[in-house]
Design brief:
With 281 residues, the protein is of the alpha+beta class. The protein has four helices and 13 strands. About 20% of the residues have low confidence. This is Flagellar basal body-associated protein FliL.
Length: 281
Amino acid sequence: MSQPPSNPYPGSYPPPQQPGGYPPPQQSGYPVPQQPEGYPVPQQPEGYPAPQQPDGYPAPQQPQYGGYPTSGQPYGGPVTPAGPPPQKKSNVTRILLITLAVVLVLCLGGAAVLFFAAKGKVGEVVDATKTRVVAPATLAGRAKATDPTLQQGAQQLETELKKSLPDATSTVGAFYGEPAKKDLVMIAAASGLNANPGKTLDDTVSGMKSTDVEVGEMKTVDAGPLGGEAKCGDATAAQVPMGVCVWSDRGSIGMILIYFKTGVQAQAELATMRGQIEQKG
């Protein structure tokens, strides 16, 4: 009778060498415990990224929820959406320093110093000594500007005028209207004896053209019932259009600047505004 083969299932199990029907540990058909067959090493399971940053989720220090940062809150925590963007300052605020420091102090002040220095030569102009400039309660239907920045600017305007023109008999600087409605007016004027109104006017216009304010052609216009000479034209500062008018007579010099308007529009209001600013007798 033939003997059964020593290994009836070749290739499946090694021949038993110990009682009990179990193979010796060193030759088991199973992989060693350190790295089981078909499984990756425990340090980084297959198909999953490292524990520091789970697949499909951002790093824990800045999770996303609903498209907004959660400021360190756990997943599903309350959303802290970003607030509204800060409002940009108006164009008028951006060009306020330009109109104060450049147009007024360097232009109007520089020209006016010359005509006030000549006051000893014009003793015959008695009416000029009675001329005064004021800031009316309203200007051509516009109330004084209530914006704090413009109010502060008006105070600075008045201070600089008095500083530049110590011999002036009166000075005025003010803003009227509402920037939000694109209806804003700046006035600057001073009174005193003016020996040569025409030269003073030309000096003021020339001073404007030498500044950062872009001034177009200043045309001679009717100065109105108060007499003297006047010029109006278009100007631009910080890409904001402005209509500018300057007047000069024996007893005063003044400037009207209307934001968001043209020189023609400023000219149409020159006589009315000047009549409310300049007072004689």
